[in-house]
Design brief:
mainly alpha; 2 strands; two-stranded antiparallel ribbon; 3 helices; 90 residues; 2 domains
C-alpha cells in the first residue's frame, strides 16, 4: 500500500505547528505562565465572558450581552489590551 504524498507546504505547516506546540509546552512549565494560562481559561469559561453558542440546528449564535443588555467581557479585546507593548517573549 502506498503512502499519501505530502505536499512540502503541508510539511512546513506541520513543522511550524509542532514548533509552536513545543514552545507552548515549555512556556506553560514556568509557574507565572501557568497561573496566567489558568486565569485566561477561567475567564474564557466564565458566564460573564462573551461566547458563541451552538444551536440545535447547527448554527452559531453570538452571546455578548447579559440579561440586562449590558456587554459581556470580551476576552479577545482583553488579550489585545493587555499585550500591547509586550515583546514577542511575552
Amino acid at each position: 500500500m502506498r503512502g499519501r504524498r505530502v505536499d512540502t507546504r503541508d510539511a512546513q505547516v506541520l513543522a511550524d505547528l509542532r514548533e509552536r506546540y513545543l514552545q507552548l509546552l515549555k512556556y506553560r512549565e514556568q509557574p507565572p505562565h501557568r497561573a496566567e494560562l489558568r486565569g485566561l481559561i477561567d475567564m474564557a469559561m466564565d458566564d460573564t465572558t462573551a461566547s458563541w453558542w451552538l444551536d440545535s440546528d447547527g448554527s452559531w449564535t453570538r452571546h455578548h450581552l447579559d440579561a440586562s443588555g449590558q456587554p459581556l467581557n470580551d476576552i479577545q479585546e482583553y488579550l489585545i489590551r493587555t499585550r500591547q507593548g509586550r515583546g514577542a517573549d511575552g
